[in-house]
Amino acid sequence: MVKVAVVTGGAGFIGSHLCAVLIEDGFRVVCVDNLITGSRKNIEQLISNKNFEFLQKDIVKDSLGIKKADYIFHLASPASPYDFQVLAEEIALVNSVGTIKILELAKKTSAKFLLASTSEVYGDPKEHPQKETYWGNVNSFGPRSCYDESKRFAETMTYIYIHKYGVDGRVIRIFNTYGPRMQKDDGRAVSNFINQAISGKPLTVNGDGNQTRSFCYVSDMVAGIEKAMMTKGTKGEIFNLGNPEEYKIFDLAEKIRKIADSKSKIVFGPYPQDDPKQRKPDITKAKKFLDWEPKISVDDGLVKTIEYYRSLKS
């Protein structure tokens, strides 16, 4: 019997890659997305596949009508700095009301459940690198709190459904991820720098560029997500997923400019409120429990991503 995998946010950046891999691995995939930030173009290569079903629905407002599910990957949520400004209410609701509805679906169908949480639950961290046991340093009343706090709430609801209702759930905390199908103008460093570099525009670094991030290529991230769901003994566990190779944002801009063979200058802009000064995952637990770690170097991943964005311009 073919197993059914439901992917909320399945037409988004990471979700669309996950849908494709699950189909390759023999699952029947039900992709749920309201296309508020996802795109039908991201899943156009899957639409004709007999093992793929697309439901354009809003998990907060709509009844999904899903009767059978073996696995539920809950990725639905806008997640970029630009989204925090223009979709704050939608973000708060999808991660609270939406998460509860998807947990209810997991309870009713006895499906295994995975919450895609975020490194943003650590806020501007005082522990470095961040382990899963770190409680975080988050502003609950600021421009990023719609995302940071609603993801923390989503984790809490997942904990409740695991311990009160016996849902077979686990949480992953996704660190910065990049690759093809990233939204072009979403305020993220990689997509911003690449598009500025290949368009001959100045690369805009926020602040002095000394803040750090760690960048994981999307295929590595999807492999980690699938392993977190499928590995035995992961019920009730939390895993950091990301690339522990850390870069200053200024150095990332220089690297992208070099790989893209761009003549663009680097300029500096204001530093966003509550933007973390450093971010790097401790992935010891994922290595041990899931036998997972990133395989694609940042340089190789950037080459692939730059090629993708160039193909959009041609």
UniProtKB/TrEMBL annotation:
InterPro entries: Epimerase_deHydtase, NAD(P)-bd_dom_sf, UXS-like
Organism: Candidatus Woesebacteria bacterium RIFOXYD1_FULL_46_19
Organism phylogeny: Bacteria, Candidatus Woeseibacteriota
SUPFAM superfamilies membership: NAD(P)-binding Rossmann-fold domains
Chief place where the protein resides: Golgi
Protein name: NAD-dependent epimerase/dehydratase domain-containing protein
Cofactor: NAD(+)
Any one Gene Ontology BP term: UDP-D-xylose biosynthetic process
Locations listed in the record: Golgi apparatus membrane; Golgi apparatus, Golgi stack membrane
Membrane topology listed for this record: Single-pass type II membrane protein
